[in-house]
Design goal:
The complex is a heterodimer of chains A (about 190) and B (about 250). By secondary structure, chain A is an all-alpha fold. Chain A contains eleven helices and no strands. Chain B is α+β, with helices and mostly antiparallel strands and about 250 residues long. Chain B has a domain of about 120 residues: 2-Layer Sandwich (Phosphorylase Kinase, domain 1), CATH 3.30.200. In chain B, about 45% of the residues lie in helices and about 25% in strands. Chain B is built from four helices and eleven strands. Chain B is elongated. Classes of the chains: A mainly alpha (about 190), B alpha+beta (about 250). At the A-B interface, helix 1, helix 2, helix 4, helix 7 and helix 8 of A face helix 1 and helix 2 of B.
Chain lengths: ~190, ~250
């Protein structure tokens, strides 16, 4: 009985994820390349992102279409950033062991990635306002409120101490309110 | 919903209001951003370059085939595993407590070992489980001893254990005879595998067994509540002499 249930779940979930993979592959390939600048790794990262989404299948099923796409893209971004960060560290280590002069000339891949993030499309109204936020703030708020990650997960992803995550979120929220019309500051003044 | 210590506190209420507000904003943001992503995806879909290759697609499905069952299995076990462990611990504790405290269970376990032993050609004259009421025979008080010892042998040692007594006789050639008496709660094993002779006979009015193997003769019988045996290690000792010795066993006051 249990095995029958598991088989049905497997097939249903596989179909669900495969459909998402095929439907949004163009966007995901583009987004992964934006971060990594390497088509050679893009396919692996997309698949890795989908495997990470397996425990989130019930949540994904419950989301409306647009929100679900955002969730997919942000998950892929996490995986891609993580990959770039590791690649960057490996490169630094490899060059550091050969000569310091070469290491100094290495471009900071992570910094380049963040710079690319800043070149985003213009969204309307609220979205546009939120895009004025630093990328780190926006990601932080998205992870916290849309992906419902806990402090430990956010800390690992953004490489900040777990005990400071709450403070970072609070500051990001303050900045978001300030950009979104200043009524928050007005509230405070009251 | 968690109960607040200060439900009407302005700072707390404001904090909660901001939390809900940012959640709504972020939810709206995800929707708007998702809409843009969708448009972008539609544009990109027109270019074959952005479509997955058949090979990549197959690889992806294979990875899902491998990972999904693992995930579902883990998820299923996450709920049943603690219960399974709890039941197992309970059973182990219950069985061991019972076997250590209840005499009936102890005898059952003992009998189980006896049965397994029998399969390996060992003879064990265990007690009848039906007659197991308080059969703890004191060996330090009234004891049974043979009164007729084969000529040339004399008593050299007596060793008492909780449920068993071993008496050793020896002759000048350092050949020995062992007389062993066990109370019925213990048991006795006699190896009959490849024996030269195994004879059932009546000794002291009870069923007994005489075994000859590799020059050693053993006589095993029951006397009242006790299991008795005589083992002669010398080939010079006749079976008759040992049976005579067995027949002479008496209660010593």
């Amino acid at each position: 009985m249990l095995s029958l249930f598991l088989t049905i779940s497997d097939e249903s979930d596989r179909e669900f994820l495969t459909n998402l993979y095929e439907q949004y592959y163009p966007l995901l390939k583009y987004k992964a390349y934006e971060i990594t600048h390497d088509y050679g790794i893009v396919e692996d990262l997309i698949q890795e992102a989908f495997l990470k989404l397996i425990p989130k299948i019930p949540l994904l099923r419950s989301l409306a279409c647009y929100k679900m796409i955002s969730y997919l893209v942000y998950t892929l971004r996490n995986v891609s950033i993580d990959y770039v960060r590791k690649r960057n560290r490996r490169s630094k280590r490899a060059y550091a062991s050969s000569t310091d002069n070469v290491a100094d000339q290495l471009p900071d891949l992570l910094a380049a990635t963040e710079e690319n993030y800043m070149r985003q499309e213009r969204f309307e109204e609220l979205a546009q306002a939120l895009l004025q936020l630093p990328e780190k703030d926006r990601n932080l708020l998205f992870y916290k409120y849309n992906m419902e990650m806990d402090d430990r997960e956010i800390a690992e992803l953004l490489e900040i101490p777990a005990q400071h995550v709450r403070q970072y979120v609070s500051r990001a929220r303050e900045r978001a309110f300030r950009i979104l019309g200043g009524d928050h500051r007005h509230d405070k003044e009251k | 919903m968690t109960k607040r210590s200060k439900p009407m506190d302005q700072v707390t209420l404001k904090e909660e209001y901001e939390e809900i507000r940012i959640k709504m904003i972020m939810s709206r943001f995800a929707e708007l951003e998702g809409k843009m992503f969708m448009k972008e995806n539609e544009e990109l879909s027109k270019e074959p370059f952005y479509h997955p290759s058949e090979n990549a697609r197959r690889k992806f499905i294979n990875r899902l085939r491998f990972r999904l069952p693992i995930y579902h299995m883990k998820k299923a076990l996450r709920f049943s595993y603690p219960r399974l462990v709890a039941v197992l611990i309970f059973l182990v504790v219950a069985i061991f407590t019972a076997s250590l405290t209840v005499d009936a269970v102890r005898i059952k376990v003992l009998n189980l070992f006896i049965q397994i032993k029998e399969e390996y050609a060992d003879i064990r004259m265990g007690q009848d489980p039906q007659q197991s009421e308080d059969q703890n025979v004191p060996l330090n008080g009234d004891n049974v001893m043979p009164t007729e010892i084969p000529s040339g042998y004399h008593l050299t040692a007596t060793t008492d254990f909780q449920n068993m007594r071993i008496v050793q006789y020896e002759n000048e050639r350092k050949e020995n005879i062992l007389f062993q008496s066990n109370n019925e709660n213990s048991s006795m094993s006699v190896d009959t595998e490849d024996a030269d002779e195994v004879t059932h006979m009546i000794i002291q009015g009870e069923t007994g067994l005489v075994i000859r193997k590799q020059g050693r003769t053993s006589v095993v019988w029951r006397k009242g509540n006790q299991l008795l045996s005589i083992i002669g290690s010398s080939s010079n000792l006749s079976k008759e002499a040992l049976i005579k010795m067995a027949e002479s066993v008496q209660l010593q006051k």
